[in-house]
Design a protein that fits this description.
Blueprint lengths: L1 H21 L10 H15 L1 E2 L12 E6 L4 H5 L6 E2 L2 E8 L10 E4 L13 E4 L11 E6 L2 E6 L1 H6 L3 E2 L1 H6 L2 E2 L1
Parallel strand pairs: 2-4, 2-5, 5-6, 6-7, 8-10
Antiparallel strand pairs: 1-9, 3-4, 7-8
């Protein structure tokens, strides 16, 4: 009986270890509830922003959200790829360190970048407080366990982005 239990437990352990070793890294990674919440806030903010028609090269061009390659929120944004913003399908694109993505409509920033490298019609969004003030239209702000956002109208104007008054009323701060 003990031998049967031992070999059964050993066999089950071997199967679990084999499956875990053979599984791709992304298979076990799930975004946290906090990241899912931030992704939902982010997409809803973008729904209340209007980019000029010249930001899109064709009527069917998707609304591209560019996310840093190592940003954990990228995984939480994945379910939104089947959704739409202003009747355009959402496309999540990743970019690496030191790389400036092209053809993006919303650019998530986790660190300060050179302002002259940001083309017009981008909607820069700061995901952390490490982004220098004056670079992002919207900055996510963590207040305790809540996620709020601040808006910089000067940056929005420089990037030809119009923000809904409903969005501005929900902002923690508007500059």
């Amino acid at each position: 009986m003990i031998r049967r239990w031992f070999f059964g437990t050993f066999a089950l352990s071997a199967v679990i270890i084999t499956l875990a070793a053979g599984a791709p890294a992304w298979a076990s990674v799930q975004p946290s509830r906090q990241l899912e919440y931030e992704a939902a806030i982010l997409v809803n903010i973008l729904r209340f922003a209007t980019l000029p028609a010249s930001a899109f090269t064709s009527p069917g061009q998707p609304f591209s959200i560019c996310v840093p390659l190592d940003a954990p929120i990228g995984l939480a944004l994945a379910p939104y790829e089947s959704k739409t913003i202003s009747e355009r399908s959402i496309e999540i694109r990743r970019y690496g360190v030191g790389e400036m993505p092209s053809s993006c409509h919303a650019l998530l920033l986790e660190e300060t970048v050179q302002t002259e490298t940001l083309p017009p019609h981008y909607f820069p969004i700061a995901m952390t407080s490490e982004v220098e003030p004056g670079l992002a239209c919207v900055q996510l702000v963590r207040v305790g366990r809540q996620v709020r956002f601040s808006v910089d109208l000067g940056v929005a104007q420089r990037h030809d982005v119009s923000l809904s008054s409903r969005l501005l009323n929900l902002a923690l701060h508007v500059r």
